[in-house]
Amino acid sequence: MRTIDWVDGAIELIDQTLLPDELVMLRITTVDALIEAIQRLAVRGAPALGVAGAFGVALADGDRKAIARLREARPTAVNLAWGVDQAAAHLEEGRQAVLARAERLRDEDIAACVAMGGRGADLIEGDSLRVMTICNTGALAAVERGTALGVIQTLHERGRLAEVLALETRPLLQGARLTAWELDRMGAPYRLIADSAGPSLLARGGIDAVLIGADRIAANGDTANKVGSYSLALGAERAGVPFFVVAPETTIDLSTPSGEHIEIEDRAEEEIVSVRGVRLAPAGTRALNPAFDVTPHDLITAIVTDRRVFRP
Ligand code: MRU
């Protein structure tokens, strides 16, 4: 099953807001509907956003203003703008050429995830591994197979995985809703933990590696990813646990020199004061909701891409 694809003249994608309760495909025929799906996280995760952006250009019928709006629908994951640009470069050649580039980009993502899975699994030493991860970096965040969760899936397939500790990932619970759903379908052993338990569980010992994905990697290796990644990196360093970033090279943004230049998406206060429509905080409570944080490069043991391994 693919998270996102082009089917009979439209984008079809899994509506991730309905998981794990319902597996529903959305059929998207306009750029506005795609922007709405991206902003409410029906489709999310850097590689999937890249593919969505590229297919979205095929829906735009050459409307450059619509393409510009799509490119900026979410600011932190560089793959969205990159995917849009890759497809838009073929606008002069017509819709078929745009679509052909988007389909190639989809296929490249599938191959990249297979390559990262193998390379990451080769890099991590030991058997009976216990690993920790945040957010969702699985097939749902890409096309057929994930990045960091793709490595974990490969470890599982090779019989080397003892347990995954998955952070629930407040406020939108990508860990609890999506990563748990994917691990369950893989038949991989896992337990869910509260986000704030991550660093202290690392300190307690018995965890072999932390694996995260990335939304944008600056030229110096600083890495933007789901908020909470930085606390895990600090905890991992303190505990002497290797901390791996797994991402395709399309997530590396050489035009951004370092992490302080990465735009961090601020999302609605409502996502913090309530959970899935149920208000938790007193009415009128204000909230601050940065969706991502930046892990400085010196806290990263290695960045595993589809082509190589970068070390500090
Ligand atoms: O807000 P989201 O769910 O789009 O955030 C996703 C992440 O932070 C992922 O870790 C990242 O995009 C890498 S996905 C392979």
Describe this structure as you would to a colleague.
It is a single chain. A seven-stranded mixed beta sheet has the order 6-5-4-7-10-15-16. A four-stranded mixed beta sheet has the order 11-8-9-14, covered by helices on one side. A three-stranded antiparallel beta sheet has the order 1-2-3. The protein contains ten helices and 16 strands. Helices cover 37% and strands 19% of the residues. A hairpin with a 2-residue loop joins strand 1 (4-7) and strand 2 (10-14). Helix 8 (198-204) runs parallel beside helix 9. The protein folds into two domains: 4-111, translation initiation factor eif-2b, domain 1 (Four Helix Bundle (Hemerythrin (Met), subunit A), Up-down Bundle), CATH 1.20.120; 117-310, Rossmann fold (3-Layer(aba) Sandwich), CATH 3.40.50.10470. It has helices at residues 31-39, 46-59, 64-71, 78-88, 95-123, 148-157, 174-186, 198-204, 229-239, 270-273; strands spanning 4-7, 10-14, 25-28, 129-133, 161-167, 190-193, 209-212, 216-218, 223-226, 243-246, 252-253, 274-275, 278-279, 292-295, 302-304, 309-310. The protein is globular and about 55 Å long. InterPro entries: IF-2B-related (IPR000649), IF-M1Pi (IPR005251), IF_2B-like_C (IPR042529), Initiation_fac_2B_a/b/d (IPR011559), M1Pi_N (IPR027363), NagB/RpiA_transferase-like (IPR037171). Keywords: Amino-acid biosynthesis, Isomerase, Methionine biosynthesis. It comes from Nonomuraea dietziae.
